[in-house]
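dumping this here before i forget
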Amino acid sequence: MNKLGCLCKVPLFNPLTMNEKNNIQCLLHHKTFQKGELIFSPGDQEQLSIVASGAMRIYRISKTGKEQFIRIVKEGEYDGENYLFGLINDSLYGEAIKETKVCILYKTEFNKLIELYPQLSCRLLQLNARKTVELERQLELLALDRIEDRLALYISRLSPLPTIIEDEIVTLPLSMKELANYLATSPETISRKLKNFQERKLIIRKGKKVTLLKTFWNEFNFL
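structure:
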């Protein structure tokens, strides 16, 4: 995908006209990363990493060496904006989970961009507010004592329906390891809980596809 294509797909740049996008495309650096390659890590030059295609996972390495999954950044989303405003990345990594094309905006270019189009500052604040809401949703999950309640609430949030009137299939977007990190438990525990849900006829699971049965909603009701 070319740089202009990246600008057209990313919500951050929606306030700009096509001519304005044409004017700033030279500020972006376009790179392709293969699965497992690091897109950014602590100590790198401050950058905003915009996913044009593919996906990257964000994780933290604690002082004890333990990896903690944070989130998946999908096509059209980005990460690293905090570092453009002076914060230091001392623990976060961004890794491609498949072939991923990224548009990178370094701090020096970002400063030029904001000077040209100050309205992007407001847009950035709006999008950051959404990320804050997602973090709060994760903290809400972690506040639940029982792992099965955390897992059930997480799965329920994958459903796009405002009210459940029939069985529904959802897709788990994370691997067992990533989901376990997200819910602060182990992959073995997640697998065991999913199996238990099946045995209790609350769900039907086939790989990443999970059918939420009416009994699932009745059981958890909803937390």
